[in-house]
Every structure is written in C-alpha cells, then in structure tokens.
Design goal:
- It is a single chain.
- It is built from 37 helices and 4 strands.
- The protein is mostly helical.
- The longest helix has about 55 residues.
- The chain is flat and about 170 Å long.
Amino acid sequence: MATIPLQLAQRRLEAGNGVSYPEGSPAGRAMQDLGDELSAVAERYRQMKERQEAFDAELARRRFAERIAQAEDEVAANAPADGSGLHDAMYGEVDPRSGQVVKPGLFDTLFDEALPDIPESQRADFARQKEPMRAAGSPRMAQRQQAQRDEYELAEWAKVDTMSTSSIAKGDPNDIGAFEAIRQNGSDLIAKIGNPVIRQAAEVAWRSNTAKALVQAMIAQDPKRAAEMLGGAQAGSRLKYDTAEAVDGSNASGISNAAIADGAGKLTPVNSSAQAFDRSISSTPDDKSAIPLDAITYLKPGDLAALRDQANTATAAQLVDARAKVQLAEQNAPAVIASTGEYPEERPTAQDFVNIYGLKEGAEHFQAFDTTSNVAAAVFDMRRAPNQAIHAQLRDFEPGPNGSQEEWARYEARIGGAEFVLSARRADPVAYVSQMLPGRAPDWDKITTPEGYKAAITWVVAAQGEMGFDKILPLPWTAAESLAAKFIDPSVPWRQRMTDLSTIFLAVRDPRLRFGMAEQLFASGLPRLRQNAATDPKLTPADIQAREDALAAALLAVALHPARSQYNAESFWLQPVQAADDVARLMAKGMTLGHADKAAASLSSLFSDKSYEELLAAERAATEDAEDRAGSAALPAELLGGVIAGHGLASSGITLTGRLGTAALEGLTGLAARTALAGGEGAIYGATYAHGLDEDMLRGAAAGALWGAGGNVLAEGLSEIGRQVTARLTGSLEGSTASEFVDSRPAEEATDALRNEGVPTATEVEPLERFPTTGNPAAKISDEDDLKLVATKRTTTNRALRKEWELLHGKPWPKDPKTGRNMDVSHEKALADGGLDHVSNIKARTREEHIRVHMEAGDFQRWARRRWLRAKISSGEKL
C-alpha cells in the first residue's frame, strides 16, 4: 500500500472556479469521498507510528534499567570493604534544599548515554523521568551501602573477638585486671557498631566468648581447679545467657537487677552458685585470685557442659601424662642420654615418682632412674671411642668378686650402653660415623659424580677403620638403596644403568670395597625387585628367581670387572677404539718392562698442575682397567710387547741366550746350562719389571728366573712333548679326549688348558680308568644330544679365576694337602659341554678328585666318542 503524505491528505477541494451543480457535482462528491479516505489513512499511519516509537522507547527504558542494575553491582563490587562512597559513586550527590545535582554519578553518565537511543517523540518524556529514577534507585543503593558497612563491621569485630579471646585463653587466668581490660576494650568497640541488632548479638556473644576463654585458660593452667569450679554450676542454674538481661539491666557484676530483687533475703540459683564458687575459689590453698562471677554466669549451657567435660578430661590427661612422663623417662632416658648426651624432655623429679608409685616404691624407682641416667651420661663418651677402647673400659670397670650390688648395677648399665653403641655401629656404620663427625662427613644426598663417591667412600672407610669397627661398609644404607633403585629401574635403558653403576665402581679401586658395595646394592635392591615382581601376576616363582639371580650376577660382574662391564655397555662403534687403546697400553707395558705408566706420568707432569704421584696413580688405574677389559687377552698382549722388546734386544745382541758355549752343548747338560742362562736373563727382566710396578724386586727377580728357566725347558721340549701327545691321541680311543680340548681352544692355550683343567692326557687316562668308581652312575646322553653341545672357548685364565674366587669368598684358594700346590680349577659344567668360564661355575678340587668326577660321569669316553662321530660326519660317512 502506497504511503500518502499527511499534508496531501489534509487538503480539500476549492470550489471557487468550478462548475456549480444544484445538487452537487458528481466529480465533487467523488473527490470529497477520496479526501475522507485519505484522511483516515493518514490517521491510522500516525497512530501506528506512535505505537512503534512507544515500543522502542520502552525497550530502551528496559535496557537502561538493566544497565543501571549491572552498574550498581559493579560499583558495589569495586567499592571499599566498608562500602564508603558506594551511593555517591552511583547516583551522585543531590542538594536536599534545592534538589539540584551537586556531584554527578555513574547514573548521570549512563542516562546521558541512553537518552539519544530514545525515539524523538518519547525523548522529552524520558528526560522528565531522570530525577524520579534517581529518587527510586538512591534509597536502594544507600541500603546496599549500609548492608556492606554492617558486614564490614561484623567481620572486623569477628577478628577482634578471635584475637582477644585467644589472648585470654593463652594468658594467666588469675590476672583479673588484664581480663577485665580486654573485655572492656571489646565492649567499647561493640558500642560503636552502628546496626543495633548486630550490636546486641555481638555483646551477648562477647560476654560468652570471653567467659569461655577465661575458663579455658584455667583449664590449661590448673584443670583440677577448673573442674571443681565448673562442677558447682548445675544444669538447672539460671545463667545470664538465658535472659534478655545479658544485654541491658545488668549491674557491675553482670547479675541482673531483677534477679537480685527476686524475694527478700532469698538467694536465687545464680546467687547461690556464685557464692558457692566464691567460697571455693577464695579458699584455695595457693591463695590464687578468683575468676569473676560473670565468667560463669554468662556461659552458654552447652558451653558450660563442654568446658566441664574438657576440664575433667584435662585433669585425667594430666594424671596420665605424669605417669607417662615418668614411665617414658625410665624407659627411654638412658638410651637417649647415651645417644645425645641429654634428655630433651622434662626429667621427672623424685616427687613425680612418689606420686606415681607411692612413697617407698617411688624412692626405689627414682634411685634406679638416677643411677642409669648418670651412667648413660658417661656412656655418651663411648660414642666416639674406638671399639677396642670401649671393650677396654668395660674390662676396667668390671667389679671384683667383692663388688657391691650398686657397683654391679652400674656395670650392667654400662654394658647396656656399650651394647647400644656397638649395635648402632653394626646396623649402619657409615651413618654412624657421619653422625659423629657432621662437619666433616660427606653429604651423600649431594654426591652425583664418581669422583664424589670415591672421596666419600675413602673418607668413611678411613673413619670406620680409625674407630675400630668390626664391620666396615663403603656406603650408607640410604645411598645403597638409592643406587639399587636406579640400577633396577626398568624405565632406564640397560646400557645406561650399567654404564652409570660401573663408572662409580671404577672410581673405587679397592676390590674389597667393590664387593662390599655389590653386597649392599643386592641387599637393598632385592626387596624392591621382589616388590615390583609381586605386582606382575604373569611372573612365576621361577621367573622371579631368575631375576634375582640376574641381579646377583650383574652386581657380581660389576664388582669383579667394572671396566669390562662398562666396556660391554658402550656403543659398538666405541668398543674398537677402546680395545685398540687397551692393546697399545698393555703392549707398551710389556715393551717397557712395566715402566710405561711411570714414563707417561713423568711426561704428563711437565704439562699438568697435578703432581707426579697423582698422575702415576691415574696411569696405573687406566692400565688396570685396560687389563680388566681385555680379560684373558691382557696377558698375551703384554707378552707380545715383551716379546717385541726381547726380540729387539736379542737382535741387538743384548741377550744371554746361547752364550758362553751353551748352544753347542747337548743332552741334559746343555739343557741345564741353557736353562740357567735363561733363568738369569729372566731374573734381570723380572727385577726390572718389578721396579716399574714398584713391587719387591727380589720377588720379581725370582719370578723372572722361574719364567726364564721354565720357558727354555718348554721351548726345547715342546716338539718332543708334541710328538708324544700326538702319538697318544691318535693311538688310542681314550686319548681323543685331549684332542677334543685342543680342538675347542686356540693352539697356544691347549697345553695350559690340559694342565689347568685337570683333564687327563693320553698317558694318564689308561691307569686312571682302573680306579674304582663310587656314587650313582652318570645319566646317559644320546649321541644326538651330545653332538649338539658346543665347547666354550676360554675367556679368562685359571689364575684370574682363582683370584676372583678369593675376592668373592674372602679366603685364599685351597691347597692340595698331599702336594701343597693349588687345587685344580674344576668347572661344575665342563667347558667341553658349554659350561661358563666364570667364577660362578668353578669349584676347587684336587687333581685326583677332578679326574675321578669326570670318569664317574663318563665324560672322557663321551668326549672321545663325540670327536670320533664328528670326524665320521666330516668325512661324509654315515653313522
């Protein structure tokens, strides 16, 4: 529908120049009707416009009202805690006489912002509503300000109430002046609270709380006295807390005037109770001041009962504490004094013992307590004395046959103190010496480097040795538990764990301390390992045992061969570099006859701040680690260096071999002469080698002489011995046992293996087989299963195994009682059958027993048949 402007709709036809019709012109009537219709349309448009603007104006008013409500909340949230300025910040200040706005507020700003949003036709009406809106919101904001002020005053009073009652409860209940001052100070502050309802409630609570705090102070000081006072206040007594007079109408004592005037000469329940309390308090034997009467009368009934229970409980607890103090002192004081030199708790007096045990028995108990305490103080001096000195003191202090009962009692007490000290030393010797010397002892929690562990272990071992400990440990148990937890942590790669632990073990050069560390780590790690295994239901007892064995084997390997363990954990591309360096170092040791470390230390001292002794110790440690990494290859590498040096000397003519006409001599005479010259030359080399290692040169010369003489005999007789051995090996079935061993080892180790393994040679088998056998017959092994067994190649020497066994068991390798020589190194599972060439697989046996074990097991025949079968298979024959 088209819109018709109002000015057009209001126009009328002019009849001045038109044609006049008697009954009106038809066109005029038509135009008149049209004008009326247009006027009606215009009127409807005007009314619609007014409604739209009124609707928009109402929406704007609602938005303004919502914004005002939001602004009031924001102003209240940002106002100070006491609500000051809350009203003025929102609605400003208005002069009550003129009604003019003196200081505009946020309301004026929001109104001015909202006015342009009002339709023009409604704007004037909205502007006239500004002051009525202010008048409506101003009381609301003033009420909020007052409420916030009331909350502020209540919160601040609560703080004062808490601090004041806490001060009363912790103070002296007999200091009535201080109590009255605190209470009056609080009452003065309450009187300034603006809200009468809050003021009245605060006053009632204040009187009750101060009374409760005062009684609590008495309970803390003298619970028995407090219980007697509170016991007189019966549940039926009329307390001021129950009446409205708690706020008004009270006299100076806090008792209501109405209660005092209740009957001539008649005591009210309150007065009766008060007098009873007054009499009981005033008659106290220590003449203590009485608690104010209103301290009782203003208590709540529930508080009165609770305080009475609290006093009774405290009284009972006081008696229990007194008994506990005496009994705990009797039980613990001697040990504590012996440990620290003083008893940290209050020592009970003779009267305390009498109160607990009675007059006669209490005196006896106190005498015993005093005696043991005095002896314990003397025992404190033992804590820093060596074990030998402690035992000497006990011997000197022992009473004679005619000693009195008191002397024997003191002696027994001293023995108990000494046992306490010695037990603490045995339990954790490292922790004990650390407690004795706190300023000098290492802080194990801060030790993270191998050098730190080395220095700490060296110190604690020296301290334990100085104090003469029976058992010396390298680590405190806390440190052992920490290292064990890291070593068995499955979240860390195995190589990393092995590297970290072996690095620490490498820093400790004493093999005994390494074994001690391994034992401590195993003892600490085993419970944790079992605990971890218990959480995995899939593990069987066999699996758990296997893990425990693996832990023991790993720690033993690290203790025996820390350098080798570290080498095995290195990356594969680093191992050849390390191996080459080790071979060069060992060959240099042989070539210089043991002087390589001294030469390297001397050269390094020219360019280092360290002393020659420190550098030499480092070089020798590196050489020792190289020998550990090389294992059985260390001796050949060193011998190779020696051979190279010897060959160089022989090429230069610096040798005794073949000199003095001995080369032309034949028979035993020639052999003896050449052997003597070789022994002399070996003595020279041995003495030189011992000098390089700072060892006994005489012993080195003797060992060199034996090596030189033995080497000459071996060299000259090797061909003949080889011929005989070969003849025997090929000439009898039993002799194939030896060839089996030769086949499973390098040629240069075959002879040593035959001798040291205790395996009979061809000349020994035939007579030994006639010996009677004992025990159960050996289990039969099929040829098929026997052919699957692969002989283990030697990874170490019998000499090294014997040394490891001695370190492990802490005693020398056994000697054969018949010959006086070392017993054989017997492998429990033979190397020919795949047994480990490890200290865990060896046992000391005499040569005769060693051979008999193999014969009873049928090993010699089985090994010979295995070689025969393999030979047939190699030749293509059918079995």
